[in-house]
Amino acid sequence: MTQPEHTATEQLLITKAADDAVARLELPLARGTKVFLDATGVSGDYAGYMTALLRERLLELGGWVAESRDQAEVIVEARTGALSADDYQTLIGLPSITVPVPLTGDLTTPEMALYKRAERRGITKIALNAYRREDGSLVGKTDNQFGFST
Predict the structure, then answer these.
(1) Which of 11, 49, 61, 77 is 20 to 30 A from 139 via CA?
(2) Is 11 helix (H, G, I), strand (E, B) or coil?
(3) Is 83 within 8 Å of 48 (Cβ atoms)?
(4) What are the two backbone dihedrals, phi and then psi, of residue 99, each rounded to the nearest 5 degrees?
(5) Domains (ranges, CATH) in the chain?
(6) C-beta separation of 116 from 92 below 8 A
(7) Per-residue pLDDT tens digits for 30-76
(8) Which of 87, 61, 56, 66 lies closest to 140 in space, CA to CA?
(9) Long-range CB contact pairs, 44-47, < 8 A, 24+
(10) 107 - beta bridge partners?
């Protein structure tokens, strides 16, 4: 049980997957190109983290962050297809079950596992496309990049 909506483990899994995917993004930006990041295609609970991470990556690629579209030479649109965590569980044995007992309520039996494996996985899918603000011509685009953490 956790006080915030997401556990620290979940937050770390998702942000680590995002870190790995964004680190592989490459765009052909000339050093000093003024870039505006359009992150409207990034949504979910971790959109703020992903947006900051993308801004950092654009700076690493040589772009300079423009405060508005009008100040930019290049617009970079980001889109995420996944920014979440999945749970996987395998059980060979008998799961815990609830049995109604008349006049006393419910009785929950313990789980009896011969083999049990539980895994939590952070998953991210991200891609970018960049175009010139003046004429809308394509500067470059990335393939979908996936990040995973366990």
Answers:
(1) 49
(2) helix
(3) no
(4) -115, 125
(5) 8-142 (3.40.50)
(6) yes
(7) 999 999 999 999 998 999 999 999 999 999 999 999 999 999 999 99
(8) 61
(9) 44/80, 44/83, 44/84, 45/5, 45/6, 45/83, 46/11, 46/14, 46/15, 46/18, 46/83, 47/80, 47/83
(10) 99
* Strand runs labelled E in 57-111: 64-65, 74-94, 98-101, 105-108
- Which amino acid does the sequence have at 55? R
The tokens for 56 are: 């950092």
pLDDT digits 0-9 by tens, 116-148? 999 999 999 999 999 999 999 999 999 999 999
CA dihedral 87, 93, 97, 101 (to 10 degrees): -170
DSSP single-letter state for residue 16: H
